[in-house]
Amino acid sequence: CGEYRSRLESEIEIIQKMGFSGYFLVVADFINYAKSSGIPVGPGRGSAAGSLAAYALGITEIDPIPYNLIFERFLNPERVSMPDIDIDFCGEGRDEVIRYVTEKYGADKVAQIGTFGTMSAKAVVKDVGRVMGIPYADVDRVTKLIPSFRGKVFSIDKAIESVSELKKLIDDSPALKEMIELAKPLEDMVRHSSTHAAGIVIANEPLADHIPLCKGSRNEIVTQFDMNSIEELGFVKFDFLGLKTLTVINKALELIKENHGNGEEFKLDINKIPLDDPDVYALLSSGRTRGIFQIESSGMKELMINLQPTGFEDIIAVLALYRPGPLDSGMVDEYIERKHGKRNVQYPLPELQDILRDTYGLFVYQERIMSIASVVADYSLGEADLLRRAMGKKKPEEMKAQRDRFLEGAKQKGIKDKKAKEIFDAMEKFAEYSFNKSHSAAYALITYQTAYLKTHYPAEFMAALMSVEASNTDKVISSITECKQMGIPVLAPDVNESLAGFTASNGTIRFGLAAIKNVGEGTVEAIIKARRENGKFNSIFDFCERVEARKLNRRTFESLVKSGAFDSFDVGRATLTESLDTLLTYTSLKQKSSVEGQHSLFAMNDSVSLPRLSDTDEWDEKAMLRHEMDVLGFYVTSHPMLKYASEISKSAVNTDTETLAELKEKRDVSVAGIVRSLTVKHTKSGSGIFGNMVLEDLKGSVEIVIFNDLLRKSLPLLEDKVEPVIVKGVLEPGED
């Protein structure tokens, strides 16, 4: 208790001295508004998670003391700068929080911040090529040869210097040479303005008196200055970020309450779950991390399998380590080997054991560098933060001054000069790779929460995930596959069970009615309303009698049939399809008779007799799956790939679509899948043809381009769309 009081008093004193009390209270106010309004808020983001005051005010949800998070990493009394608290909100509630602050502080004092998009080498070449009328295929060849590294596109000059093939292509074409010369001066120029994804400015006087404003694409008020200019003018900006995972967690909790709760008594407080659940760590160690925050990629899965995490500190470390620097330096492998006792854990000084124990002697976090400077050289934590920044910037004069200060401080504490130099050199080396532990800890909490839900409520979690990702076909395909691997049946829509979106019940997941092509919102509402008012439908005829006829046209009815939404009536899909006209006529006559019966003493409601359905052979599996794909966009009853899984595993296939999406280099690949779509076009000259094909496997899909003779020869096979094919070709990673 004394440690908490002392820490809190110290933080409050610094906040008050720096004049930031109002800032903290404003942030706490709109966060508490969001929470009281049922809008999910993230547990923290960035260095603010290191503040006990922020935790006490409800701004963050992670106690900084057990994890040795440092307040001065967030707010340094020796370097006066504005605090920066970024907040994650559920994407569905973010606009409501913006509306709240706008109403509270005044529409003339709140605005979203503008941003300006610039032209990278690829973008400027495309624009100039289009204006010059150069064929798209030629421009596309140039842009595909411009490399990018870790998300940053090379400049035109650097690309030409680095890629001999690009240089030759340009040198051999006067038109392309002219295009490049015109493009160079335009590179990195502003191309367009837009609204920043997160930035909000709140002022205590009308913004228009100081900042030019405009209206954005959604009629929102936007500053015509960017974020840096806003801050330079002395205005306070806030980042309101929308985080999809918070929406997933919220939807999962709603489904859990519905399925496991007892009225209002049941409530799972996601912020109070135990962080030492062995079943959660077993799931993470298995690599089955689809949908788990921050650790979905194949690289992360492999890391988790190798690491075998056993505690929350392991998750924090993984989020800090899985970045280019630590991966390239071998630091990740060393962490794993030290954890499993394959390498000795050594500490520079016995006094540093408590600081570095959680990371097995490695300098993983920026906060640990600050703590070491404090212990070894008697730095204040504010001074230590300045040292951390200096090590990151690597300015020679500043580093010399810091080295001298560190060595002198160590000398005063009785540490030998040689050992002090070794420690400083190690800190300087690892400062390049070390990461903000406060941010890792806050995000690790979301990682753990999603893993906890997937471990203990797998059907509800996966249903929530699929609902949020419903517009991303590849992710839904991957989720369906994972559900089947987890033993969770994914069922077709059902007019007696489905709601609009994905739902979970009794350990199964069911598609929602809104997922069916040609079934609009009005039809979904009409079906659910009829069910709510008079119970489930007991037959196809009962459905026809009770759902508003004007909500059921032929296309809607046919799509419901093909999706399997009437399967619970034990009437075959082919039979219902052949009987569509009969059923629509019955629907119209029966409901018209019912209306007349309400206005006439003699009209008989049973005067319309039940029709006879067509007698026809049922579809085979191939036809049924093709129809499911047509109206749902997914295979639900089964997947054509499953039947051939054994043969494919023995073939020359060397990758899958999920792995392809993560590859960044051009290479020969071989992949198996089902043709999801195929569009055949003629070349500009008219002499050739090419096909744009989307190939789907159990993990997602990939776009493939096929040309001329190969396409002509393969068309009959590709147009089947239900039998798997193996495609060998050259991977060209996209700009994304």
Read across the widest sheet, the strand sequence of neighbours is 1-8-5-2
Contiguous low-pLDDT stretches (5 residues minimum) are 599-604
- Strand count: 15
Residues in helices, as a percent range: 40-55%
Mean pLDDT: 90
What is the overall number of helices?
33
Strand content: 5-15%
Distance between the termini: 50 Å
The total number of structural domains is: 5
| Rg for CA atoms | 31 Å
Give a verbal description of the structure.
The structure is a single chain. The chain is α+β, with helices and mostly antiparallel strands and 736 residues long. The protein folds into five domains: 2-116 and 193-246, no CATH class; 120-188, Bacterial DNA polymerase III alpha subunit, thumb domain (Arc Repressor Mutant, subunit A), CATH 1.10.10.1600; 351-434, no CATH class; 457-632, no CATH class; 642-731, OB fold (Dihydrolipoamide Acetyltransferase, E2P) (Beta Barrel). Helices cover 49% and strands 12% of the residues. The chain has 33 helices and 15 strands. The strands form five sheets. The protein has a four-stranded mixed beta sheet with strand order 1-8-5-2. A four-stranded antiparallel beta sheet has the order 14-13-12-15. The chain has a three-stranded mixed beta sheet with strand order 9-11-10. The longest helix is centred in the middle third of the chain and has 20 residues, at 437-456. The protein is globular. The protein starts with a helix and ends in a 5-residue tail after the last strand. The relative contact order is 0.07. Residues 599-604 have low confidence and may be disordered.
